[in-house]
Amino acid sequence: MGPQGSPTEALLDVVIPARNEAGRLERGLATLSGKLARLQVGSRILVVDNASTDATADIVRQWSGPVPVRLLQCARPGKGAAVRLGLLATTAPYVGFCDADMATDVEILDDVLAMLASGAQVIVGSRRHPESDVEIYSRPFRRLGALAFNRLCREMTGGIIDTQCGFKFFAGPLARAAVADLRTAGFAFDVELLLNCRRLGAGVAEIPVVWRDMPGSTFSIGRHAGGCLRDLLRIRATARRAVTPAPMVPIADELHVG
C-alpha cells in the first residue's frame, strides 16, 4: 500500500454532506480525521458543500489534517443530493457517510471496518438498537415527529429500525450502484438508498451506536416534514410498481471541485 491516506489507494472514503456548517465543520473534521488516522489504513474525507451561503467551503479549502480532505460542491440543495454526489465521487472499496456534527461517535469505525472486511455490504448505525447509548431529543416536537417518521420508514424497508441515523457504510461498488438511481434530494433519501441496496441483493446490518443530539441541526419539522412525507409516498409507490427510478440530474451537471 502507498502512503497512508493516498487518494489513489484509499481503502475507505467517508462523505460529509455540509450545508451552512461553518459553525460545526472544523470540529467535525478534526474528530473524523483523527479517528481515520488511528485506523492506520488509507482513507480520505470528501466534504460536499451543499449550496452553502456561509464559510463552509473556505473551511475545507484551508483545512490541514492527518488524512486528505477533498471539497466537492453540489449546487442542488438537499442532503440526498449531496450524499449522492459524494458517494458517486468515491473510488475506495469501502465507503460511507456521516453528519458534520459527528452526532454518532466515530469510535465505532473500528467495528465497521472489520465488518466490511468480513463481507458486510450495508452497515447502518441504529439509535433504536437495544445496545445503543442515545441522548434523548431535547425538542419534544422533533422527537414525536421522528418516531412517526420512523414507523413509516420501518414498514417500507422491511424492518430496518432506524433508517435516518446519519451514519451508514457500504461496500463501495454497491453504494455507487445504489446511488446512481437515487431520485430523492431531501432528508428522506436514506429510505430510497436502502431500498435500492435491497433491490441489488444486499443485506443490511444495524449496529449499536453512541449518539448525542447536537444543537444546530439543519432539519426542521416545520420546514421539511411535508416534503419528507411526499418523498416517502413517492418512494413507496415506485417500490410497489417495481420500476427502476429515473436518475437525478447527471453528475457532470452537479459536480464542481473546490
Task: Summarize this structure as a short list of keywords or feature phrases.
258 residues, eight-stranded mixed β-sheet
Structure at a glance:
The chain is an alpha/beta fold. The chain is built from nine helices and ten strands.
Textual characterization of the structure:
Helix 1 (25-39) links the parallel strand 1 (12-18) and strand 2. It contains nine helices and ten strands. Helix 5 packs parallel to helix 8 and helix 7 runs parallel beside helix 8 (221-241). The strands form two sheets. An eight-stranded mixed beta sheet has the order 8-5-7-4-1-2-3-10, sandwiched between helices. A two-stranded parallel ribbon has the order 6-9. It has a single domain, classed as Alpha-Beta Complex (Spore Coat Polysaccharide Biosynthesis Protein SpsA, Chain A), CATH 3.90.550. By secondary structure, the chain is α/β, with parallel strands linked by helices. It is globular, with a radius of gyration of 17 Å. Residues 1-7 and 243-257 have low confidence and may be disordered.
Tally of helical segments: 9
Q: What is the CATH homologous superfamily assignment?
A: Spore Coat Polysaccharide Biosynthesis Protein SpsA, Chain A
Fraction of residues in helix:
25-40%
Measured by DSSP, the beta-strand proportion falls in: 15-25%
CATH fold assignment? Spore Coat Polysaccharide Biosynthesis Protein SpsA, Chain A
Order of strands in the sheet with the most strands? 8-5-7-4-1-2-3-10
Name the poorly predicted regions: 1-7, 243-257
The secondary-structure class comes to alpha/beta
Distance between the termini: 27 Å
The total domain count is 1
Mean pLDDT: 84
**Shape assignment:** globular
Rg measurement, Å = 17 Å
